[in-house]
Amino acid sequence: MTHSERAAELFHALADPTRLEILDELKAGECCVCELMDRLQAGQSRLSFHLRVLKEAGVIQDRREGRWMYYAVNAEALAELGDLVDSFKQAKRARRVAGCC
User: Fold this and answer.
1) Average model confidence (pLDDT) for the chain?
2) I want to staple 54 with a disulfide (CB 3.0 to 4.6 A). Which of 20, 60, 68, 81 is the partner?
């Protein structure tokens, strides 16, 4: 996967208000699906869709405990996102220093 493709995957995963709400809930620590349903007032199928998008992008991790699934923020993916944003900032600075146009 190219740098741009990975950036698009991460930004797509974050480009939805529901997914951002999920991340906001998870920043305090891991939650089970039932807790997320209650906190976000979201149905199971809607929540599952958004959790799948976040998980496929690697933004969140899950673990099973008995019959419950628990979700947590993947700190490595957020660090990767920060690195991507920083790389865009660096590219802009480098272009200005080069004196184009």
Assistant:
1) 89
2) 60
Instruction: Taking each helix axis as running N to C, give the angle between helix 44-56 and helix 17-26, from 0 to 180 degrees, rounded to the nearest 10.
Output: 80
CA 94 to CA 101: how far, in whole Å? Answer: 13
pLDDT mean over 5-17: 93
Q: In whole angstroms, give the CA distance from residue 94 to residue 9.
A: 25
What lies within 8 Å, CB to CB, of 40 at 6+ separation is 18, 21, 22, 25, 47
User: Angle formed by the axes of helices 44-56 and 3-14, to 10°?
Assistant: 160
- What does the DSSP assignment read for 17-86? HHHHHHHHHHTTS-EEHHHHHHHHT--HHHHHHHHHHHHHTTSEEEEEETTEEEEEE-HHHHHHHHHHHH
pTM: 0.83
Cα separation, 94 vs 89, whole angstroms: 9
Q: What is the pLDDT of residue 61?
A: 97
